[in-house]
Amino acid sequence: MQTIAQPATPLAAASKSASVSQGHATHSAALESSELLQGAKAVSIVHNGAIYRLQTTKLGKLILTK
To answer: In what order do the strands lie in the sheet with 62-65?
Structure first.
């Protein structure tokens, strides 16, 4: 049996919710955008061999483009 550590914040707790579907548990995780961007205005993300660009706007919104 595997033990899962409790998240430190309510946001982390909500993002690590598990749902059971067809007998399998699925987990979703949330990351802070600042963790991905690390001070940059944009980052490239490779997904299934394609490159995506995640960028912030002047108003603090996020844009993901292929």
So the answer is: 42-47, 50-56, 62-65
Contact at 8 Å (CB) between 54 and 37?
yes
Q: Which residues of the chain have pLDDT under 50?
A: 1-3, 6-7, 9-21
Residue 39 to residue 23: CA distance in whole angstroms: 41
Residues sharing a CB contact under 8 Å with residue 17, sequence separation 6 or more, in sequence order: 27, 28
Residue type, 23: G
CA torsion 42-49-26-21 (nearest 10°) is 130
Cβ atoms within 10 Å of 2's Cβ, excluding its own: 4
29 SS3 class? coil
Residues 54, 63 contacting (CB under 8 angstroms): yes
